[in-house]
Amino acid sequence: NAGVTQTPKFQVLKTGQSMTLQCAQDMNHEYMSWYRQDPGMGLRLIHYSVGAGITDQGEVPNGYNVSRSTTEDFPLRLLSAAPSQTSVYFCASSYSAPRGSEAFFGQGTRLTVV
Amino acid sequence: KNQVEQSPQSLIILEGKNCTLQCNYTVSPFSNLRWYKQDTGRGPVSLTIMTFSENTKSNGRYTATLDADTKQSSLHITASQLSDSASYICVVSAPSGGSYIPTFGRGTSLIVHP
Fold first, then answer.
1. In the predicted model, is pLDDT for residue B42 greater than 90?
2. Inter-chain CB proximity B89 and A43 less than 8 Å
3. SS3 of A79, please?
4. Is A100 on the interface with B (CB under 8 A)?
5. How far apart are CA B34 and CA A70, in angstroms?
6. Is the CB of A103 inside 8 Å of chain B's CB atoms?
7. What is the per-residue burial (b if ≥16 Cβ within 10 Å, else e) of A70-102?
8. CB under 8 Å to A30, separation ≥6 — which residues?
9. Disulfide check for A106: which of A4, A24, A62, B4 has CB 3.0–4.6 Å away?
10. CB B93 within 8 A of CB B100
């Protein structure tokens, strides 16, 4: 049982480049979300989706886009990478919205923007 | 603004000893509170969930308490093991626009020495 799979695990980008972080889950979860984790700070919600075709912004959405064409996949796009986007990114999924539903996290993508 | 404050920031204990981690929150309205364990280089994993009506919940050597009146929670670890070395994150969820938005604390870094 793979759970939540994120790719790549590590990535270095130059300022201004774009890229997509991939996230896939095989648990048939409706709710998926993306977080960033910076040193000394809690995880911060970037975008989330309550089901295929439905996405919404979280706490820090600027500079990121998402789409949810299938239940399984929830990619995160960096439009024009900036050094401030250097962070560790986590994708999570849960059966429903966080109320009473455990979130399962991927192993993270460590992104460095130079 | 909803906030979750954890203390201490870091803690070093000897193997076999007990410890207690604290979480204070201002999230309102309150839906539930979870404690997660995050090993270095990995995504968080849920330990316990507390709802408004629950005061205590145990998961093996982990016991979480909740005082919804004072908006405080604690995570007690009994007979610590080397594998308990990790970051422990308190997460409080609140309803928002038909979904539920989690607010993450910054975590307590626990190191267990032999």
1. yes
2. yes
3. coil
4. yes
5. 28
6. yes
7. ebbebbbebeebeeebbbbbbbbbbeebbbebe
8. A50, A51, A71, A95, A96
9. A4
10. yes
Distance from CA of B99 to the nearest CA of A (A): 6
CA dist., res. A63 & res. A23, Å (int): 18
| CB pair distance less than 8 Å for B43 and A56 | no
Please report the pLDDT score of residue B89 as a whole number. 96
pLDDT of residue B32: 87
- What gap in Å lies between CA A3 and CA A27, rounded to an integer? 6
Inter-chain touch A108–B43, beta carbons under 8 Å: yes
Residue A1: per-residue pLDDT: 63
pLDDT above 80 (res A101): no
With contact defined as beta carbons under 8 Å apart, do B88 and B104 qualify?
Answer: no
> From the list B32, B101, B106, which residue is nearest A41 (CB)?
B106
**Phi-psi category of B16—alpha, beta or left, where left has phi over 0 and alpha has psi -120 to 50?**
left
| Mean per-residue pLDDT over chain A, rounded | 93
pLDDT for position A86? 97
Instruction: Judge: A42–B43 Cβ closer than 8 Å, yes or no.
Output: no
